[in-house]
Amino acid sequence: MTQTVPELKFHDGNSIDQLGYGVWQVPDAEAEIVVGKAIDAGYRHIDTARIYGNEEGVGRAIAATDVPREELFITTKVWNSDQGYEKTLLAADASLERLGLEYVDLYLIHWLQPKRGTYVDTWKALIQLQKDGKAKSIGVCNFTIEALEELYAETGVRPVINQVETHPYFPQNELRAYEAEHGILHESWSPLGQGGDLLTDPVLVKIAEKHNASVAQVVIAWHLAVGNVVIPKSVTDSRIIENFASLNVTLDDEDLAAIATLDRGPEGRIAADPATADFA
């Protein structure tokens, strides 16, 4: 069966494939190979970042594919040490050069870094990048409700998306409700809980058995069902294909209610808290 990836609309009029392919922790040389395989499997949305060190590899995969550029959706991000208005503009140009692209479809601020106080100026740079055609759409990662409010208060422009840690143990219900109210899409990183206890959770195992699916497929299907954009990462051929086939898994209300019971609140967070995180 050929899977059709749902598209979600940004408030700026552009759209994003709800299921994408992430390349966090993938070495540059390997990125070229696995991104090519992901494109062959059906992915058109590829998510990278300057700090991943693999923009060049992603760019080589883009150059090598027969899929037209306009059918691909490429995301990259400005890293913390590059924040600030002028530095962000330079960082974006450097990312485009490494990717071998004239524009990215989505450019994101990677972390809030609240103690540094540069995120508003960085956001103003992203607004300029969009005006200049170097980024079709602009958004953020790891932003709190308060920071999202501040960006809008200072510039009158809301991010189209906020990419944050999200999985059934940490579903980000309050943040997602705020975003939905203000037309901001929610994107999940570490959507599989970084392969920890989540993938052996008895509730998810039972649902997977019911659907004749893997637990990873059930978790990805959950993200899709609740409206998240999701970017699972794998460097294994079979799992790249398996993750994409999550599009064939349709969860019912009973499944979604059972998964909702897995919410651990703040205790479910695996990575750093954006409200306090401060690292170069």
Word description of this protein:
With 280 residues, the protein is of the alpha/beta class. It has a domain at 15-193: NADP-dependent oxidoreductase domain (TIM Barrel), CATH 3.20.20. 39% of the residues lie in helices and 15% in strands. The protein is built from ten helices and ten strands. Strands 3-4-5-6-7-8-9-10 form an eight-stranded parallel beta sheet. β6, α4 (119-131) and β7 (135-141) form a beta-alpha-beta unit. The longest helix is centred in the first third of the chain and has 15 residues, at 85-99. The chain is globular and about 55 Å long. It starts with 6 loop residues before the first strand and ends in a 20-residue tail after the last helix.
CATH architecture of the domain at 15-193, by name, is Alpha-Beta Barrel
Structural class: alpha/beta
Portion of residues within helices: 25-40%
The termini sit apart by 45 Å
Major pleated sheet = 8 strands, parallel
What's the number of helices? 10
Stretches with pLDDT under 50, minimum 5 residues: none
Query: What is the arithmetic mean of pLDDT?
Result: 96
> Which word captures the global form?
globular
Q: What pattern of helices and strands is seen along the backbone?
A: EEEHEHEHEHEHEHEHHEHH
- What integer value in Å does the Rg equal? 18 Å
- The CATH class designation of the domain at 15-193 is Alpha Beta
- Beta content comes to 15-25%
GO molecular function: oxidoreductase activity, acting on the CH-OH group of donors, NAD or NADP as acceptor
Family: Belongs to the aldo/keto reductase family.
Protein name: Oxidoreductase
Site (Lowers pKa of active site Tyr): 77
